[in-house]
Design the sequence.
């Protein structure tokens, strides 16, 4: 949620709360003040009636607003006011009045003077003030909303442009990050911090990229020399079996080390974003091509592959990485499958899976995608293959699930759109 949207929602949420509280408080206060004012008017009216009665000796009652009644001395009380309801025959309804009772004595006689004034019904007061307060608070909220939108244009315009620059910025490009001045001290301080940080990160990125490339290149050369020397030694005729075995182990270790270096270099390249080309990849086609390439190995181990395709799975990604992912998961399935078994591949629109037989489930399935982790001690494995698979899948938002059922290891790859 954007900051201004959250601010507006906060205004609305607390505005409703303020409205409810203000509505109740204003109605109660207005009702109290109104009655106080009416009581003052009724008191003045009662004094006028008393003066008229004292002067003329009588008073013509006007029901129900002005009434003078003679009472016994025992009924004389202090002046008091109250709300009352009086039946209105014309409208056949009870009408609310404010009533003030005062007591006066003339010529040894005692009188009760009752003055009344009609009140607004509480429902009318509530409706009137609620409508008034709703209108005022509504106008305030609209003005605040317009004000924040105007402030967004003035204060946040440059900030939003800088955000777009950051979104499009990449260390792999040669363009230096240049954020625009906003004229606001806090935003400009943030721009300086981000610029300095990006400069340091860019230097680290380029150093890491250069080191990876140099290390891979420099290591491959001596490894190639070692392999060549080992191959030359194999052609010697005066070597005993123990020496040949040692040379063979050196050759295999060198070959494995070369695979590790290539794998680490690929991981570094993916981290550095060097695979940016995308196209719609058909995994059904890639899997079939890969199985055809493994035909000799499959025949040698008497393995067969069953492919079940309900619909082609297509994902937009770099073709090189897609081929590498398929290569590694199929190689993993072949290497860990017992001889004379069936490898199953299932392909649908949203996912594909590959299954191979096994005696027991993987002990730590959450670790199998870690670099250099090997469930078995097989010397053929570099411990990089599945790490590359996980890195590629994460790079394109694919989800990987592992399961073991009916003595089958199954790796399922789900499309990022699922």
Sequence:
């Amino acid at each position: 949620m954007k900051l201004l949207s959250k601010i507006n929602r906060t205004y609305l949420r607390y505005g409703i709360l303020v409205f409810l509280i203000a509505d109740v408080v204003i109605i109660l206060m207005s009702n109290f003040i109104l009655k106080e004012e009416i009581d003052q008017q009724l008191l003045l009216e009662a004094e006028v009636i008393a003066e008229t009665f004292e002067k003329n000796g009588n008073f013509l009652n006007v029901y129900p607003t002005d009434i003078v009644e003679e009472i016994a001395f025992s009924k004389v009380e202090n002046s008091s006011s109250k709300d009352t309801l009086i039946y209105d025959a014309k409208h056949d309804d009870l009408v609310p009045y404010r009533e003030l009772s005062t007591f006066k004595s003339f010529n040894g006689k005692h009188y009760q003077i009752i003055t009344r004034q009609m009140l607004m019904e509480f429902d009318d007061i509530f409706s009137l003030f609620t409508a008034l307060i709703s209108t005022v608070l509504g106008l305030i909220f609209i003005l605040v909303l317009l004000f924040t939108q105007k402030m967004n244009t003035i204060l946040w315009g440059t900030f939003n442009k800088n955000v777009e620059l950051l979104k499009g910025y990449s260390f792999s490009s040669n363009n230096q990050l240049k954020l625009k001045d906003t004229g606001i001290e806090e935003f400009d301080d943030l721009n300086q911090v981000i610029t300095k940080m990006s400069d340091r990160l860019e230097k680290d990125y380029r150093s890491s990229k250069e080191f990876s490339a140099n290390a891979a290149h420099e290591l491959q050369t001596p490894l190639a020399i070692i392999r060549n020397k080992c191959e030359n030694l194999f052609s010697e005729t005066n070597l005993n079996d123990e020496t040949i075995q040692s040379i063979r182990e050196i050759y295999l270790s060198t070959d494995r080390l070369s695979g590790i270096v290539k794998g680490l270099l690929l991981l570094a390249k993916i981290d550095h974003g060097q695979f940016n080309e995308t196209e719609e990849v058909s995994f059904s086609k890639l899997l079939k091509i890969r199985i055809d390439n493994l035909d000799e190995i499959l025949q040698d181990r008497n393995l067969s592959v069953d492919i079940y395709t309900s619909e082609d799975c297509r994902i937009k990604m770099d073709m090189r990485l897609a081929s590498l992912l398929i290569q590694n998961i199929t190689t993993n399935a072949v290497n860990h499958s017992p001889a004379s078994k069936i490898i199953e591949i299932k392909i649908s629109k949203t996912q594909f899976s590959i299954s191979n037989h096994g005696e027991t489930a993987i002990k730590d399935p959450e670790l199998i995608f870690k670099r250099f982790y090997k469930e078995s001690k097989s010397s053929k494995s570099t411990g990089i293959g599945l790490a590359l698979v996980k890195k590629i899948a994460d790079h394109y938002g694919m989800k990987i699930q592992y399961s073991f059922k009916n003595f089958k290891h199954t790796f399922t790859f789900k499309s990022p759109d699922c």
